[in-house]
Amino acid sequence: MHAASREALTRVGDFLDRTIQADNSVTVAAQTGMELFEVVDILDNERSLRVAIADSSVDASQRAGIVDKLFGGKIAEPTLSVLKEAAATNWSTPRDLRNGLITLGRRALLRGAESQGQLVQVEEELFEVSRTLVREGKLTQLLSDRNAASSQRRGLLASVLYGKVTMFTEALALQAIGRPENNPIDDISGISSQAAQLRGRSVARVVTAAELNEDQQAKLAEKLGKIYGREMTVHTEVDPSLLGGAVIRVGDEVIDGSTRNKLDRMRAALA
């Protein structure tokens, strides 16, 4: 996303937060999120509309007016106000606007989870869903099939998640499968990271040879927080093939302190 679009997303994201907080309702947050996703579906099918409401050469009030005319009375007032704010803000490209609305829809659902006291749980559940997909290659392959209808892919994942996660986790995971950006694992993991960011935290993905207990995870989070200068959330998984130690990923940075890596380097030095 271009710089101007990142600024637009921040501005509209703050507006969305204020809109949801004004109602202080889990229902409003959930409805706003789901309706923003529905608007994205319409924009995906109507390129000319997507271009029109993202055209920065047109006055902002006119762009907001287009949105009001098309969606007024068809979506809830909080959703309409967020959509009009997005239309009145300058985005670098129509695609950035479309992607911004997806991020805003996710943000609304995450704010709903926060109001319900479930934001941490949703973050952890989304991460676990992404790890399940890593382990279940056949399922991931089916969910990645772009030739299958989005409803079919969503139905498949819904059958796996039913009764095992919160309604917010399920809604967020299903929308990601229905409108993929990269692959199911990265898309769902990315929403987990977005949840952490709303809590003012960065995510460290830690792979260890043996499972870490809660105390070990807390100490690792504290140590990483001192290294990176910000609060950290640690998401862990186990890979016995590491033999010992850990592999830590924070953003694009990878710290490989595993025994397997040390042995590989020793072999390379002796070759």
From TrEMBL:
It is found in: Cell membrane; Membrane. It is a peripheral membrane protein. Pfam families: OSCP (PF00213). GO terms for molecular function: hydrolase activity; proton-transporting ATP synthase activity, rotational mechanism. GO terms for cellular component: plasma membrane; proton-transporting ATP synthase complex. It comes from the Bacteria. Keywords: ATP synthesis, Cell membrane, CF(1), Hydrogen ion transport, Hydrolase, Ion transport, Membrane, Transport. Transmembrane segments: none annotated. InterPro entries: ATPase_OSCP/d_CS (IPR020781), ATPase_OSCP/dsu (IPR000711). Signal peptide: none annotated. Belongs to the ATPase delta chain family. This protein is part of the stalk that links CF(0) to CF(1). It either transmits conformational changes from CF(0) to CF(1) or is implicated in proton conduction. This is ATP synthase subunit delta. It comes from Corynebacterium doosanense CAU 212 = DSM 45436.
